[in-house]
Amino acid sequence: MRLISWNVNGLRAVVNKDGFSWLGEYRPDFLALQEIKASEDKIPAEIYNLGFENISVNSAKRAGYSGVMSLSNLKTQNLKSQFFDDDEGRVLEHRFDNIHLFNIYFPNGQQGDERLGYKMDFYDKFLAYINSLVSDGKGVIFCGDVNTAHKEIDLKNPKANAKTSGFLPVERAWIDRVIKAGFIDSFRFINGDVKDAYSWWSYKFNARAKNVGWRIDYFFVSQGLKDRLKDAFILSDIEGSDHAPVGIDIDL
Asked: Where is this site: Interaction with DNA substrate (predicted)?
């Protein structure tokens, strides 16, 4: 089964750029989109013609902001956030068999201390929630724009960004906690310490052409699913957003 996640940074803009033309080649069974920036009544009609049987949307109350969408050929129970007051449209949870699959647009902490606090609160409540699921014998997969690079290898200029939200010690320590709890960073598990592998590039300074990027988009799987993981990848050649799609192949 192929699962792909992509922060589109504006769904309508990606549709206008024919930004989903790659789907025929990669054929995901599940496609998680973040930062769609559209209410459900503003979803472009083209999205409903991409060949997916099921589409779920969680839009922010604020127009043109945040929002997540999942497109799937899986039969799942679809829920919005069960662990956080989600006015910003950040969470979709999909349950099937014994699996809980999350599509999440994690908060950005760069707007100041208040938003960093919001981000860390979201982080903490989400980790507590997925730990409880694993304790109940569930398999957990979560994907999306986590908005934090974990290690120095995960961004081009770690020293210059040491005091920037997205690479702060407190944010990176949360990913340490996720891994200590038994969740697997699928890309590193499959690809090891491969360098210069990024999923986001600033629109400024020709950053993408120079590959001056960050790896902030992830698929994590719980320990019990590790042996089912077959591949993990970044589709860095696919454009249309400042993020690249990331994905996994997994036996489910």
From this structure: 243
Its domain, for residue 164, covers 2-250
Look up the pTM and report it. Answer: 0.98
Amino acid at 153: I
Average pLDDT over residues 82-111: 97
Task: Render pLDDT for 117-169 as a digit per residue (tens, 0 to 9).
Answer: 999 999 999 999 999 999 999 999 999 999 999 999 999 999 999 999 999 99
Token duo for residue 112: 């100041």
For 4, the token pair is 């792909």
Spatial distance between the Cα atoms of 60 and 219, rounded to a whole number of angstroms: 23
145 is in an annotated binding site: yes
Give pairs for 80-85: CB < 8 Å, separation 24+. 82/129, 83/125, 83/126, 83/128, 83/129, 84/121, 84/122, 84/125, 84/126
94 labeled binding residue: no
Nearest to 2 by CA among 190, 229, 237: 229
Between CA 52 and CA 29 the distance in angstroms is: 8
242 is in an annotated binding site: yes
Q: Show which residues are catalytic.
A: 105, 145, 243
Given a contact cutoff of 8 angstroms between Cβ atoms, the answer to whether 149 and 201 are in contact is no
The number of domains in the chain is 1
d(CA 178, CA 202): 26
Q: Return the pLDDT at 111.
A: 84
Label the pairing between strands 30-34 and 200-201: unpaired
- Here the CATH number for the domain that contains residue 48 is 3.60.10.10
Please check whether residue 108 is in contact with residue 65, taking contact to mean a CB–CB distance below 8 angstroms.
no
- The H or E element containing residue 184 is strand 184-185
In order of 1, 73, 117, 251, the CA distances from 123 in angstroms are 27, 29, 10, 27
